[in-house]
Amino acid sequence: MVVGEISQERDLVIIGGGPGGYSAAIRAAQLGIQVTLIEQGNLGGVCLNKGCIPSKIWTYAAKKRSEIQHMEELGIESSGEGFHVGKLLDYQTKVTKQLRMGVEKLCSENQVEVIKGKATFTRSDRIGVENGHQFDTYTFKQAIIATGSFAELQANIPRESNRILLSDEIFKLAKIPDHLIVYGNDYIAFEIASTYREFGSKVTLLLENERDFPYDSAINKELTRQFKKKKIQIIKNAQLNSVKEMNDSIITITYEKDDDTEHLLEGTHLFTPGIRKPNVQSLGINRLGVKQNEEGFITVNKNLQTTIPSIYAIGDVVKGPMLAVKAIKQGKVTAELIAGGKPEVDLTFLPAVAHTIPPIASVGLTEEEAVEHDLDIRISQFPFGSNGYAMISGKKDGFIKVISDKSNDIILGIHMIGEGAIELSASFAQLLEMAAKEEDVKFPLYAHPSMNEGLLEAVEGLIGESIHMVPKRKDERVSHVFT
Predict the structure, then answer these.
(1) Is 415 noted as a catalytic residue in this protein?
(2) Long-range residue pairs from 28-35, CB within 8 A, at least 24 positions apart, any chain
(3) Which of 34, 411, 422, 476 has an alpha carbon 20 to 30 Å from 169's alpha carbon atom?
(4) What's the domain count of the chain?
C-alpha cells in the first residue's frame, strides 16, 4: 500500500453514491458547495444496480404478462406462451446501465468530484480512501454518511445454497423456479410472490404472524383474495425452524404453527428479504465516538447531524424505513442545511407502496388506527368495478378507501389497491400533508374517464354523494363513533 503524504482539503465529502448520496451531492453543488462523492462500487448504489430498478423491471414485466388476455380481447393477438428470461435479464442490464450513465453525467455536469474507493474516517475531520494499492487522505469541513444497508439471512437459514436467495440475487436467476417459497411479510416479499406466480412459478407465501398483511384491513382482505385467486398458497403464523438443501433441486423447510406441530414444506427455491443492516462496519466511526443504537444505526438529531456536528448521516444508516425515497429526501435536506437553509424532513405521510398485481398505496391512518385513537370517523370505499376507465383497461380489481374525521371533515387516511395506485400515492400524501378536508378533494375537476375519478367518488361517498356507487341504506349513511 502506498500512503499519500499530503492530505487534500475538501469542503463537503459524501460517502456513498446511492440515491441519497448522489442526490445530496447534486443539490449541494446546485447551492454552490464544492462536493466530493466517494463510492466503492457503481454510482446509483444498491437501489439502481441491484434493488429498486431491477426489481421493478421484473414487476413491470409481470404486469405486462398479466395483460395478455385483455390485449386479445382488444383484438391484439399474442400467443402469450413464450417467456425468455435471458431477454429480460438483457433488458435489465441495458436499463440499469443507461440510468447509471445518467447519474454519472449529472454528477459531471454539476461538477461533483467522484472518487472511486473505500472510505474510512481517520479523524473527525479526515478521511482516507483506499483504491487498490493507492491510499489518499482528505480533510473536510463537513461530511455526509450515505453508505446504505445490506441484507443478511436469518440465523436459521444456511448461507451456502444458491437456491436460497436475497433480493439482490433473485433477479439474476436465468431460470424461473418451479416452486418458490417466499418467507417474509413486507412489500418486497409480496412483489416477489406476485411477480413469480405470473411467470409460472408455484408460489407459497410463509407469514410469521397471524395478521395477514401490514395494511388497512380492507387492503389486507383484497390482497388475500387476489393471491388466492392466483393460486398463491398463504401459510400464516409460520415459525421457521430449519431450512435444508436436500439435493440439487429441492429445498426443505420445517416450521411450526399454533399447535406446536412441526410441518414440512418442499420447494425448489427460497426467497427471503432477510434482515437489513446499516452498512457502517468499515467506516471507522466507532473510534470517533459517533453514537449508534444497539442495532448499529447511526444516531442523528432532527437536522440529521451525528454526535459530531460536522458529520451527517442519511438513508438506511439511520433508523427508519429503508426506502430510497427517504434517502433522497434526507440527502437534499442535508445539503440545504449545510448551505444555510432551514428545511426539514417529516416522514409522517411517507407512502407505503407495493408493485404487486394489482399495486398498493397506503398513506395516513388505517381504519384500525383511527379506532384505536377513539376518533369519530367516516369511511368510504369506491370499487374500481364502477369506474369507466377501469372497465376499458380491464383493471377492475381493487378500490380506493378514504377515512375522514367526522368532527372537522379532515382526511385522515387514503388506501388503494388497484391500477395507478403508485402514481396516485403522491396525491394522497399531498392531501394529508396539507390537512385537506373533504371539500378540498371534491372541488377540483377530474379528467374523465380516468382512475383518478375513483378518489373523487370515494370522498363523495363519505356523505352518500358518490354518483357511481350503490347508495347505502338510510341507517348506514350516518357514520358511527368507533370506541
Answers:
(1) no
(2) 28/335, 28/338, 28/339, 29/110, 29/111, 29/112, 30/110, 31/335, 31/336, 31/339, 32/339, 33/335, 33/338, 33/339, 34/10, 34/113, 35/11, 35/111, 35/112, 35/113
(3) 422
(4) 3
